[in-house]
Design a protein that fits this description.
- The protein is of the alpha+beta class and 150 residues long.
- The protein has one domain: 3-Layer(aba) Sandwich (Chemotaxis protein chec).
- It starts with 13 loop residues before the first strand and ends with a helix.
- Helices cover 37% and strands 23% of the residues.
- A six-stranded antiparallel β-sheet has the order 1-7-8-4-3-5.
- The protein is globular and about 45 Å long.
- It has four helices and eight strands, in the order ββββααββαββα.
């Protein structure tokens, strides 16, 4: 009997994808293990891209909210907004997920998408938005890489 891996997936790399007419988009093949894989999608509150988390990472975010120094009232407001704006998506046989119209509009995903691995989660960006953010982040990346000895 095969045992399911308990190691969390590490998402790395950058991949361009197109959306079909129904807003389905293929997750990079190394990031999904097959049909029925669940992810949670939420529009980033400031930067206009989609954050995508597997269930374990989504639960860790809930723990971070609970363990934060925020007041109980602010925790309730954050949870309400975060969980209310999150959408569960499930991969199909081709490794595609269906994004809702609201998220596609919020992230400007009309001409395709760029998937960016960020470790325990990944991001879905509009190509133009990603190119702009990437150019703006280059100097910080170089400085931080130097600071940690990359």
């Amino acid at each position: 009997m095969e045992q399911e891996s308990t190691k969390p997936t590490i998402y790395s790399g950058a991949f361009e994808r197109s959306l079909d007419a129904k807003n389905r988009v293929a997750i990079p093949s190394g990031w999904v293990s097959g049909e029925g894989e669940e992810f949670y999608v939420i529009l980033h509150p400031k930067e206009g891209y989609l954050m995508v988390m597997p269930t374990e990472e989504f639960r860790r975010t809930e723990q971070k909210i609970q363990q934060s120094d925020a007041t109980p009232a602010n925790k309730i407001k954050l949870r309400r907004k975060f969980f209310g704006a999150s959408r569960k998506v499930v991969s199909d046989k081709q490794g595609r997920v269906l994004l809702n119209d609201e998220d596609c509009v919020g992230a400007s995903l009309k001409d395709g998408a760029v998937f960016i691995g960020t470790g325990p989660r990944f991001e879905i960006w509009a190509k133009a938005s990603h190119e702009k953010a990437s150019a703006e982040d280059e100097l910080i990346y170089q400085q931080m890489a130097d600071a940690i000895g990359l």
